[in-house]
Write a structure and sequence with these properties.
This is Glycosyltransferase RgtA/B/C/D-like domain-containing protein. The chain has 24 helices and 2 strands. It has 535 residues and is mainly α.
């Protein structure tokens, strides 16, 4: 394979040059009017792109140095200084944690006005007026009280948000504290993911994960906004980490503690984001296919007990605000079937949010009428689409979910407080407001990274699904989780943002797939099933 070593660097330079040429061409074509800001964005965009491609190349070289290159996999571990590698791991672990706390502060959102009113802005602005008071003090408008009444899944989060930041009356201070809390949660999630990768594989892959996670832009974009996506990120990662820790433990008490923590973390996450439950289901599937009946029974029993406690706690908190009464729920809440019917409307070109469908559902004055109407709407949509139309809609949903290299973070984080980002990179494709030149360059900078993640991750997932050998690996849980999330988003409302709280798992899977791309099997003892007396 020496010939590969000789040609790959000039080839990479040529490839990078070609990609920069394409990026500049797209940016120039999309920019309709040139002025000083657009010319500056062109220069800054090229610098960002050069920096991104350099980081991409350095990550590849790091993988090569760690023994994940094309040359040879055999005997690599014995040539790596494990003591030095452990030292590098903890350094990269600490740097990753700090970066995730500090860098999102530079992507802080400008409030109270925003490029568009999505959930984060609505909740932030509403609670800034309430300062801990009841939501009944809000006007009954679409983006005020009406929002909180029709989306019961956001009521708990909104109440906690309202009470937690009630004392912050100054808007600038509040957004800083909110951003800091969000970035700390992001940091915690990625540190837990790093430990998870280290347990599942080794320090080599964990070092590579730390460096790749630090280069993933969505962690900084969404890390600057405290919403359910960011809030549930650490619960997904900690839930998986505790499960793996419990499964590999020798002590029965340690196993029980780990499984209890895992179910608790995942149920807390599920309270704020339904997709988090998919991880718990994936854990149960893993135990089931490997015939770990006692462990399966324990996790299922813990789920049964804790879900009752969770429901009791949620009802107690939500009912503490009288405006969220059963009467108002009956009148204003949107039923589950609404989201399914909305995403399967033939006129819905993305499979995501559609305002017209929301207005249709809201015209019915009881929950039961809404449920019946949306169910019938869904059935009518299927009949209208036919078999080919159903497959076309699935394609639309997959595109809207997977075709955004930034997980649509640039759209949801529009209007940054940082003047450099706001002036040269913020842009809304819907309203055509902002700097399209810099926006295109940021998208193009994210694309190579995301393309590699998607390719190596799905390559590994399909390999794991169809080879029973991989069912014994704890990595199988991550694969089933991402696969399950994809199926859920096909059935439910599609959105690239909904992948965010699974993104550390996706990155870990992609790296594991990359490092195992030339091997038929990985018989690394740390990856295979651990069976002990009780479980």
């Amino acid at each position: 394979m020496k010939w590969i070593e000789k040609i790959k660097f000039p080839f990479v330079i040529l490839l990078f040059g070609l990609y920069m040429g394409i990026s500049n061409g797209v940016a120039v074509m999309k920019t309709t009017g040139w002025d000083a800001d657009h010319l500056t964005a062109l220069v800054l965009g090229n610098l960002v792109l050069i920096f991104t491609l350099l980081v991409f190349w350095l990550l590849y070289r790091l993988g090569d140095k760690l023994g994940f290159g094309y040359s040879d996999f055999k005997g690599v571990k014995s040539r790596v200084n494990q003591e030095l590698l452990t030292h590098y791991y903890w350094w990269s672990f600490g740097i990753l944690g700090l970066l995730m706390v500090i860098v999102p502060l530079f992507f802080m959102i400008h409030v109270p006005d925003a490029g568009h009113d999505w959930d984060f802005f609505i909740i932030f602005n509403a609670t800034s007026k309430l300062h801990g008071q009841s939501f009944a003090h809000l006007p009954m408008t679409t983006n005020a009280l009406g929002y909180f009444l029709r989306y019961p899944n956001n009521q708990l989060f909104s109440i906690l948000f309202n009470q937690t930041f009630a004392g912050l009356t100054e808007i600038s201070l509040k957004i800083f504290v909110v951003t800091l809390v969000s970035s700390v949660l992001t940091s915690l999630a990625l540190l837990a993911s790093s430990l998870l990768v280290r347990i599942l594989a080794d320090c080599r892959l964990a070092v590579l994960f730390n460096c790749c996670a630090a280069a993933f832009l969505p962690f900084y974009l969404y890390g600057a906004q405290l919403y359910t996506d960011t809030l549930t990120l650490p619960f997904v990662c900690l839930g998986l980490l505790c499960f793996v820790w419990a499964f590999k433990a020798l002590s029965v008490l340690t196993k029980l503690l780990g499984f209890s923590l895992s179910v608790t973390f995942l149920l807390i996450g599920f309270t704020f984001k339904p997709t988090v439950l998919i991880v718990l289901i994936a854990e149960l599937i893993f135990l089931l296919v490997n015939k770990k009946w006692k462990a399966f029974g324990v996790v299922l029993a813990l789920f049964g007990v804790l879900v009752v406690a969770k429901d009791f706690g949620v009802k107690a908190i939500v009912s503490s605000d009288p405006v969220f009464s059963q009467e108002n729920k009956e009148r204003y809440s949107l039923p589950v079937m609404h989201w399914i019917a909305m995403s399967w409307a033939p006129e819905n070109k993305t499979g995501g949010f559609k305002k017209a469908i929301r207005l249709y559902t809201e015209q019915f004055d009881t929950y039961q009428k809404k449920q019946i109407a949306t169910k019938q709407l869904f059935l009518n949509n299927l009949k209208k689409m036919g078999v080919l139309g159903v497959f076309r809609q699935i394609g639309r949903k997959l595109i809207y979910t997977w075709a955004y290299p930034d997980l649509n973070g640039l759209f949801y984080s529009l209007n940054h407080e940082n003047p450099l980002i706001h002036r040269y990179f913020d842009y809304s494709p819907q309203t055509k407001v902002g700097n399209v030149t810099g926006f295109i360059f940021l998208k193009m900078a994210c694309f190579p990274y995301w393309a590699m993640v998607v390719w190596f991750m799905w390559r590994l997932i399909f390999k794991m699904m169809f080879h029973k050998y991989y069912w014994q690996q704890l990595w199988f849980i991550l694969a089933v989780s991402v696969f399950g999330c994809t199926i859920f988003l096909i059935l439910w409302e599609a959105n690239s943002r909904y992948l965010y709280n699974f993104s550390p798992l996706m990155l870990a899977l992609a790296l594991y797939g990359y490092t195992n791309r030339s091997k038929k099997e990985n018989k690394n003892e740390s990856d295979t099933l651990y069976g002990h007396s009780m479980f």
